TrEMBL record:
PANTHER family with a match to the protein in the record: DOXORUBICIN RESISTANCE ABC TRANSPORTER PERMEASE PROTEIN DRRC-RELATED (PTHR43027:SF1)
GO cellular component, one term: plasma membrane
Protein name, per record: Transport permease protein
Family: Belongs to the ABC-2 integral membrane protein family.
Membrane topology category: Multi-pass membrane protein
Annotated GO MF terms: ABC-type transporter activity
Regions crossing the membrane: 60-79, 111-138, 150-172, 181-199, 235-258
Localisation: Cell inner membrane; Membrane
Species of origin: Bradyrhizobium jicamae
Keyword Hydrolase applies: no
Organismal lineage: Bacteria, Pseudomonadati, Pseudomonadota, Alphaproteobacteria, Hyphomicrobiales
Keywords from the named record: Cell membrane, Membrane, Transmembrane, Transmembrane helix, Transport
Main location, first listed in the record: membrane
Boundaries of every ABC transmembrane type-2 domain copy: 31-261
Length: 272
């Protein structure tokens, strides 16, 4: 009985081994590291100068206390959290190694946890320089948001993982021909997540859809905090509740697609 319990338990040694694998892949390629820093730096400079221009011509943005730059940084946390997860998964697809992993003692939950950890590592490499650039060039201290930042970050990273698990399952089942969904799905959600404008801007029927997305609550909460100096804990609770449901659903879908991939043989192929 004890042997069965040990066998079914999550092995942190296997998770650590997978994280080390992705870490060595990341550190062995300077283009990968450069890409993690380049795009966030480019975004914060481009949008930051845009905010400076708007602030000089409209006092609203000056009073808003950097909502545009704050939205850019939070959006990058959401997008790069999902991308960091999915890229590590695609590394296995590109290397035709996924079949080997699935035939090893590695459990799906251990595999997904290792991808989550790597998404945090990739996210830190990209976003920390971004926040420093925002402070240096535009005098916007992202970390001055304080404790609410933890709620913002957790809800966004949970959403990014849920989407990452879902799109990874689609690529797993359909092969690299479905790879483009990794790069496009998040941008498709961007208008409905109300990153740069309030939900009230949307038509009434679209507002209902927007409120089903956890990031919408985060960006509304960010604007309420920076403009009105009010932390909307109710928004964070709703976002967390939806995220929990999304994570459970995405994991169930991933397992179903994994079983389907094994059944039809696409797990070993993984091609276009």
């Amino acid at each position: 009985m004890s042997e069965i319990t040990v066998h079914r338990a999550i092995s942190w040694h296997r998770i650590q081994a997978m994280v080390l694998r992705y870490w060595y892949l990341l550190m062995s390629s300077w283009p990968r590291l450069l890409e993690l820093i380049y795009w966030p730096a480019l975004q914060i400079i481009t949008w930051g100068f845009l905010q400076n221009y708007i602030a000089q011509n409209d006092n609203f943005f000056a009073r808003a206390g950097g909502t545009l730059i704050g939205a850019v940084i939070l959006w990058d946390i959401l997008f790069r959290g999902q991308l960091g997860f999915s890229i590590s998964f695609l590394e296995e697809m590109w290397a035709r190694n996924l079949g080997n992993l699935m035939m090893s003692p590695l459990k799906p939950i251990e595999f997904l946890i290792s991808l989550m950890i790597m998404s945090l590592i990739r996210l830190a490499i990209g976003v920390i320089p971004m926040t420093l650039l925002a402070l240096f060039f535009f005098d916007f201290n992202f970390f001055a948001i304080g404790l609410p930042l933890i709620a913002f970050f957790c809800n966004l990273i949970f959403t990014s993982w849920a989407i990452g698990i879902f799109v990874s399952g689609l690529v797993l089942r359909n092969g690299l021909g479905a790879e483009s969904i990794v790069w496009t799905l998040m941008f498709g959600l961007m208008p409905l997540a109300c990153v740069y404008y309030p939900v009230s801007v949307l038509p009434g029927w679209l507002q209902w859809i927007a409120w089903t997305l956890p990031p919408t609550y985060v960006f509304e909460g960010m604007r309420a905090l920076l403009i009105n100096q009010t932390f909307r804990s109710d928004l964070m609770v709703w976002s967390l509740a939806i995220n929990v449901m999304l994570l459970i659903a995405s994991f169930a879908i991933f397992l179903a697609l994994l079983r389907s991939a094994k059944r039809v043989g696409s797990l070993l192929g993984g091609g276009e």
